[in-house]
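Appendix B. One record, verbatim.
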Amino acid sequence: MKKRILVTGAEGYVGKKLIRKFMDDSDDIEMVVGIDIKHSDEYAKGNFHFQQCDILSDIPNQLIQKYKINTIVHLASIVKAPKGMTRETMYKIDVIGTEKLYESAIKNKVSQFIITTSGASYGYFKDNPEWLNEDDAIRGNDEFAYSQHKRLIEEMLLKYRKKTDLPKQLILRPGTILGKGVSNQITDIFEKSVITGIKNAKTPFVFIWDKDVVNIIYQGIFKNKTGIYNLAGDGYLTLPEIAKIMKKPFIGIPVNLMKTILGFMKKLKLTQYGPEQVRFLLYRPVLANDKLKSEFKYTPTYSTKEVFEYYLKNK
């Protein structure tokens, strides 16, 4: 059966790269429909269609019906909230939007639902295992909207799995995605002239190359994969190691002083982060990729360190 694919977040960093791959290798693809809140004319040709729309509207459901979609790739998510966006709005887009999309998938007998959640769904906790695998608890922190929402989405998908066989679910939990020209909250940390962190804390990062993420999604579609998989290159880099690679000074600030500084800056509206965000630096989840290699049969092209070096050469 040829694939008729709906991609949400089509104008996002990964969405663009995924649709380009579809366009370059489209023999087994009958239709691709991209949707995003942002406008695009880039994909409106042949069997590639784009529709600007809100994930909370009824338009995604209409498109699934109109184009007889059999595969959904759900990439849309609020990673960094625009200024003024409320937590309630973020929740509606992330969690309610996913639920509406999944209900449409059930109603229209979509055969496969692929979603990128995040390693953040595990949460930032002192008692996390050194290496997290897919069987470990997802405890995404309530104080981080992104982490909490990814946890809530995964809990919701589990409930659906218990109720219905279709669509089949493929849940991907990426670490930090890096590639040519990427810019996000994490890369903002690396762009400072001085790298600042918590004194005596590792602050470990796992990176995955953007092309690996695209290839994994692609293989997931055409090999009809199901299950839950961490996406990360081998190994991790600590924040002091990252500073050393970048030949930048690293300043470790005592944890209580960092909390005071963040509290002061947030009060003055100089940052969106408060004292509670210190755990984001203290207890970053470190993702094991054993299941990706052994069960999904995909070995990331680059290790975490190699992904970071690629990013530095190509930013």
